[in-house]
Amino acid sequence: MSDSPVHNIATPSGKYAVLGIFAVSSVIGLFLALQLGNASLYEGEYHPAGNDAFYHARRIIDTAGERGFYEFDDKIHAPEGSQIVWPWAFDFTLGKALGVWQVANPEAHPMHFLAMIPPFWLILNVALFVALTGAVGLSTGLRAIASLCYALFPFTQLMHGTGANAHHFIEHTIVLASTLLAITWARQFSDRGTAIALGIVLGLAPAFHSGLFILQLPVLRGLGLLWLKGETFDHTAALRFSIALTVTTLISALPSAPLRDGVFDFSLLSWFHVYVAACTSVMTVLMSRMKHSGKALGRAFALASVLAVPILLVSATGLAFIRGDILLLDRIEEAQSPVQMMLTERGVGLLPKLYSSLFYLAPLLLIWYTVLAARSQSAATVMFGVAAAFGLALLSAQIRLQYFGSFALLIGLPLLLQHYLPAMRSHELVATFVALIIVFIAWQKPLNDQLFAGQNLSFDIEYELGVDLFPVLADACANTPGIALATNNMGHPVRYHSECSVIANNFLLTTQHEEKIRELNALWAMQPDELALKRPDVRFVLVILSDVYLKTDSGLREPTMRELASVNPRLAMSLVFNENLPESFELLAERRLDDGRDFAFARLFRINPPPVMTGDL
Q1: Residues 6 or more apart whose Cβ sits within 8 Å of residue 292
Q2: Which has the closest alpha carbon to 467: 612, 591, 375?
Q3: pLDDT along the chain (617 residues), means of 10
Q4: What is the DSSP letter of 163?
Q5: Entry pTM
Q6: CA 141, CA 612: separation in Å to the nearest integer?
């Protein structure tokens, strides 16, 4: 196998061509991101688009308001409350930016600001992706094709869509930036400025999501593989990278309460992340000081094994999350493995729509990138191959993790064409034309079924069905605060819209989260009178029935009562269909079907406490 084109980046494309690629890709991507306004805009008001976006919006708005920033929320996992597993940087930074914006726009709803951040952040991510296509040595035409794929990639649209103010787009930024810097540093290990920049990016990463410490792994693997091949690293640059990584991690973790409390935990920004950064730094400096030999390998392996023990002991939760072993995680579509879905009926329809048909190249690309890293003598090639294989492995593990490996998927086809077809390397127009035809064929599903398709409000049919009940809940909670019983999927929307507390939501990472899901399920299995008796702290119940219509090959049909009962909990069915509810259950609002069936598909109740008995004894 000949060496990868990564080492040929010394011949850059013309700056005007690159600027043109960037400009066209940005315009296309921005246009498609704004197309998702139908998933966010309802009756002139923007709503968070996506379940996580609701809680991010709640904390960002609170940060800009009177409550201020918080890491412990006593209104989730009630009545105990819980530590928020998302670190401080994303919500705090956007909260402060929102506060500045509100000075100039005091009457505007905060979501008018937050809804527009993801689409315009896309411009930065397009710039990073275009730069990455240059770093891997693609010709001008193939850079244009790869960048077009990025702009048209359905997950690019979903991450940056109007109202998608969850942290995924900034995670994607950090993946692209760290990969680009790692390749650039590997090209010239004496480049101390790039080494420092890479350390800073990796050090900041866990402050935006605690799981992003994992991005140190492909860098360390790449360095280790190069060391095994006899590569020598500039010791001063390696030392500066290590200092930048460790110091930045420590500084970015200092605002985190778990760190100040001495916590050592994977799921919270804590001393765990500082320790991981220190381990990466120690191993990097060690490889820069020792030449590879049998004795040096033994010492390095022994040290790495000792350093890894504390990491492995506390990383079980993270591994369980990636495997989908956490309670209810297997029911959340974004936590499913796309590889496992490939041969299912659901996967055949869904995967080409979300990834394009290029997804079916992922297994081949994963093998190719691995072999490329193992066989290449180019340091930049090795670093890119390791990063690309690592990203594709995570992309294959869960739909949610696509932002780790989408760059490797989208760059893969142009890189394969340029690498394996010598004629195309000397005939750029032919290579570009062939790639364009393949892309056109691969993008039929996204173009027809995803990029321009109408979406449910916040991508959730149940939220769309019940959206008119949330203002009523907000008013009721303001007058009589308490716990609102809702499904875990409605936990974040309840917190976004109201000051009521919730028992569980879609935080599914810790032991407490699992326990609260079990508690919630037990409550929904009760009858109304039993709920009022056993949980007097529950003041409201929000019921939104699932599957009031069922999809079939010929369209929608009405479910039978047995089918409704099979997908909706006992309490929900009683509150909708039982005409003799306890007097304490006061109906505040409902939405009824208008198709001839005589029942409400969404209802909001207040549970009034029993009257206090007074009088002489």
Answers
A1: 227, 228, 229, 230
A2: 591
A3: 41 76 97 94 95 97 96 96 96 98 95 97 98 94 95 97 96 98 96 97 97 97 95 94 98 97 94 97 95 90 93 70 52 78 83 94 95 94 97 94 96 89 65 87 94 93 95 95 95 97 91 92 96 95 93 81 93 93 95 86 94 57
A4: T
A5: 0.93
A6: 78
